[in-house]
Write the C-alpha cells for this entry.
Amino acid sequence: MLFPIAAKDWNTAFAPDIQTKATQRLENGQILFLPELAFSLLQDEKHFLSTQHADPKTKNISYHAERDKLWGVQRLTDSEHAQLKAFLSRYSHYANCLIKQLLPHYTGHLVMARTSFRPIQVSDRKSSYRKDDKRLHVDAFPSAPNQGKRILRVFCNINPNGEDRIWRVGEPFEKVADRFLPEIKKPWQGYARLLRLLKITKSYRTPYDHYMLNMHDKMKADDDYQRKANQQEVRFPPGSAWIVQTDHVSHAAMQGQYVLEQTFYLPVEAMQDPALSPLKVLEKRLSRPLIY
Ligand code: SIN
Ligand code: FE
C-alpha cells in the first residue's frame, strides 16, 4: 500500500531503479511515502498556521501558480495576501522539483494545476455526504471534468503540534469499478452539452467524467460499503510527504490539520502502462470508448 522512499530534500537526485520502481508502484495504485521529507516553514509563513484566513464556505485555500491567483481566503491584508501566495508558490515549486526528480518519465507531460493549503481540522468539518472526504472515494469533481487525465497529488503534513494526517485507504480501483459500475446509468444524450452551456461545468463532461463522478457519489452514499469495504488506516506524520493518484486510490481523510497539496494532471498516454488508468479500466469493462 505504501512504497517508502528515502529523501530529505525536495531536489534529491534519485537512482534510475528508484525512479522506475516509483513510477510502477504509483501506476499500480500504491502511495509513494517519503517519511523524512519535511517542508520547513519560513518565519513569515508560520503566521498562516491558523484557521482564521480560510473562508468557511470552502474546504481549502487554493492557489494557481500560473495564473498567480489565490482563493478560499478571508481577512487578509494586502501584504498577507502576497505572503500567502509566496508560501504556496514556494510549495508548488518544491513539489514540482520532487516530481521531476522522482518521476522523470512524466516530465514534459504533466500539467501543473492547483496548490492547496488545508488549515481546517478534518474531523471537525461538517458537510453533505458528497463533499465529505471522511468517506472513502476516488476523486472526481462535478464542475471540473478532467476528461480522462490522471490526478496526481503531492501532499506534505506541516502540522506544528505533532498531529498525524490519518487516512483510510480502500480496495483497488478494479474492485471499486466492479462494485459500482453496474449501478450507474448511461449519461443522457445532450446532458453534457447542457451542463457546459449553463456553465455548470468548466469544460465538457465526457462519459468518463460521468462514470467517475457517479462512482465517487455512490461510494460516499453507501454506509454499508464505507464500513465493510476492505480498508486500512494509514498515518502520515508531520514532516512527511506522500504522492498519490487520487482518481485511482480509494481514500478518506479522517483526521489532521495543516497539510499542503499540489495537484498535477497527466495524460493517460504519458503513463508507462496506460492500461492501469481508470479510463482504460472503465473502457474495458464497458467495452466502449468513454472520451468523446
Ligand atoms: C481528499 O483528497 O479526499 C482529502 C485528502 C486530505 O486532505 O488529506
Ligand atoms: Fe479525495
About this structure: The first strand starts at residue 2 and ends at 4. The longest helix spans residues 78-102.
